[in-house]
Each structure stands twice: as C-alpha cells, then as structure tokens.
Amino acid sequence: MHGKLAILSIALLAAFILGGCTVFFLDQDDGLTYGRFVRIETTAYCPCGICCSWKLDKSGRPVISAGRDRGKPKAVGITASGKRAHPGTIAADTRYYPIGTVIYVPGYGYGVVEDRGGDIRGRRRLDLFFNTHREAIRWGRRKVKTVVFPPGTPAMPINAPPPR
Description:
There is one protein chain. Helix content is 16%, strand content 29%. The protein is of the alpha+beta class. The longest helix is centred in the N-terminal third of the chain and has 16 residues, at 2-17. The radius of gyration is 19 Å and the shape is elongated.
C-alpha cells in the first residue's frame, strides 16, 4: 500500500512540475482505468454531403466535391479505420489520438477514435459523428472538458456512466 501511494505521489508531483504531463494508471483495487482531463474544442459531422464534402457525379456515384481529391470516388459513411461511422465515432488527429483511443465527451458520451478529419489538427480538436445533419447542427462547436483514456482501454458501452 505504501509503495502504491509513493508512486502515485511522485507521478502527481511530476505532473505538477511538468505542467500537466499525462498520468495514467490502473487501480488494481477496483479494476478501473483512469484517464486524463483535456479541454478540447469539438465540432460535429454527419454523413451528408455538406458535412463531408461530397456530391453525386453525373452517374449518381458519390465523389469528393472540393480540394485536391475533387472528383475522386467517396466511400460515404466509411471511416479511416474501415468501419461504418455510427454515434460514438470520433474523428481526431491520429498523431495525438491513435485509432482506437477511448474518449468521454460530456453531453455526447463515450466515443472511440475511428476517423481522421481534413480540418482536425492538433491535440485540442475532435469531430463527433451524429446520424443526422440536424443533430450535428444542434451540437455545433463546443469547448468541453473531456476524459481521454490510455491506449488499450476497451470501448465503453453507450449507457456506461460518466467517469468519476
């Protein structure tokens, strides 16, 4: 018990000195994995052409509507991880949050990074998937205090309680 307390004290002191260094640990007593709080600006997206920059070509196939890949085929609703987007899918800069990272967003719930967004750059930006454009517009752009869990944390069920 004293060893665990000493390690935790040293880790917290190091985090304070280094200005908020990430500290993750697994508490063997209750089996919970604790994450770190990060203030992140979130935006919302849905599978529509407005949110995801696609349109139908003359043949009725979806293509990218803007940018350097304009006119190339677009797999609508398929994420960078190859999975179909669903509520709980998060787009992030995978240099900071690799595919599979579990993040809790207040007001949205638990999500898993499964996608990358063209405009999602840096560790303080996320894009949250919604089923409809109306839901995405309702979310808008919000700065929220999220909980980012360490790599390897299993995905949380939709009805899981918020982290404590």
